[in-house]
Q: What sequence folds into this?
């Protein structure tokens, strides 16, 4: 952990609520904390995805990777092993499982993941609601091919991977969708692209939609992106879990609120 991230974590820790729901007056947030965040039930999917992750983490096969976004903090070369991608790019198990529980709880019918990598988190998202229509975007061809292989191996039939730079694929995918119920923004962690992706998906949000923004403290640019996004006037509720930020749009919440919750 770098020094700035450590300082940000301490600030977040001191200003966040304890993750047990004490003192949280919003019934929706209380329900989120007790039934989603702290749901300790074990799901079979967890074993399947984590077995895949472990296998990939040990894979020393190298592939060429085009850097289309903010790149990696762990590698400056274009040749990467599958193992290093699996260890560094995918959301860790704790957050993959949380995304699974969110989809399981709120049952979004349409899901968009911006940034597939090897498909580990895609599997969590898509298997939590197998009747959902899941679209996932990836620009690095070698990585995308591996992800598609994983979807086939794990018999994931509700996922469509769209290959190409988000600059071209995102507008095309959105043009063909009337509504988006769940969005996971997890690629190209820079200020302007992140705001751009948020602004593009916004018109497809319904009152029940959810957006999850990854790595909101990853850099000064991502902190600024999160600050601007969560203050957008259509956002009714934001939840900061440090590693990810979650946005809800339901106007029935009446008062807009920002929470930071320890997880
Ligand atoms: C952090 S990884 C995604 C991890 C994945 N969501 C998971 O948790 O398993 C981000 C991915 O976005 C891709 N990416 C970044 N910028 C992109 C762009 N402008 N167009 C297309 N793909 C991009 C990268 O190649 C990388 O594979």
A:
């Amino acid at each position: 952990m770098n020094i700035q991230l450590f300082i940000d974590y301490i600030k977040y820790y001191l200003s966040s609520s304890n993750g047990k729901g004490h003192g949280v007056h919003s019934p929706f947030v209380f329900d989120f904390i007790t039934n989603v965040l702290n749901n300790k039930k074990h799901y079979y999917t967890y074993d399947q995805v984590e077995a895949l992750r472990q296998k990939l983490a040990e894979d020393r096969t190298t592939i060429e990777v085009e850097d289309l976004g903010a790149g990696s903090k762990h590698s400056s070369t274009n040749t990467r092993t599958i193992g290093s991608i699996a260890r560094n790019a995918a959301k860790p198990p704790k957050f993959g499982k949380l995304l699974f529980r969110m989809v399981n709880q709120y049952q979004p019918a349409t899901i968009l993941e911006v940034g597939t990598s090897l498909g580990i988190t895609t599997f969590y998202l898509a298997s939590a609601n197998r009747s959902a229509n899941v679209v996932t975007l990836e620009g690095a061809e070698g990585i995308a091919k591996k992800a598609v292989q994983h979807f086939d191996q794990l018999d994931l039939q509700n996922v469509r991977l769209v290959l190409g730079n988000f600059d071209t694929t995102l507008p095309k995918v959105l043009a063909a969708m009337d509504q988006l119920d769940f969005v996971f923004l997890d690629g190209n962690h820079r200020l302007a692209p992140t705001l751009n992706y948020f602004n593009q998906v916004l018109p497809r949000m319904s009152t029940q939609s959810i957006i999850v923004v990854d790595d909101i403290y990853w850099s000064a640019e991502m902190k600024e992106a999160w600050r601007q996004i969560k203050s957008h006037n259509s956002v009714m509720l934001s939840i900061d879990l440090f590693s990810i930020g979650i946005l809800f749009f339901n106007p029935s919440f009446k008062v807009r609120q920002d929470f930071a919750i320890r997880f």
